[in-house]
Each structure stands twice: as C-alpha cells, then as structure tokens.
C-alpha cells in the first residue's frame, strides 16, 4: 500500500486512494466549519471548535499516512 510519501512532517498523496483520502479530509473540514458556524454565537466559538475538529481529523490523516507511506 503506497498511498502517501512523507515530505517533512506532512504526507503527500501519490495514488488515487491517497488523493481521495485528502479530498475527504478537505470536505470534512469544510462541512465541519459550516456545521459549527451555524450554531455558534461568536467567531471565537466557531474557530475554537473547528480547530479542535481539524486537529482530530489531521491526526487520523497522519496515522493513515504513516501506515500507508512509501518506504525506501
């Protein structure tokens, strides 16, 4: 499974499955922002909750990247 390649601390997709996972991550981030913003009362409330969601999703993305990276 060579879906990602590591570049520094980030994982860059190198296959179709990797690009689909990255697309799902971006779509989730957009949806989470819209969902949180629709029920928040302030900008700081929106950003705090959205950043927390992105950190958790980024952790999941990094774990997937780690276990499916192309190793030399």
Topology:
Blueprint: E1 4-7, E2 10-13, H1 16-39, H2 43-67
Antiparallel strand pairs: 1-2
Helix pairs in contact: 1-2
Description:
The chain is mainly alpha-helical. The chain has 2 helices and 2 strands, in the order ββαα. The protein has a two-stranded antiparallel ribbon with strand order 1-2. A hairpin with a 2-residue loop joins β1 and β2. α1 packs antiparallel against α2. It starts with a strand and ends in a 5-residue tail after the last helix. The model has no long low-confidence stretch (mean pLDDT 92).
- What is the radius of gyration? 14 Å
Helix content: 55-70%
Strand elements, count: 2
In percent terms, what proportion of residues is strand? 5-15%
Major sheet: order of its strands?
A: 1-2
Q: Give the overall form.
A: elongated
Key structural traits:
72 residues
Task: Offer a quick outline of the entry.
This protein has 72 residues and is mainly alpha-helical. The chain is built from 2 helices and 2 strands.
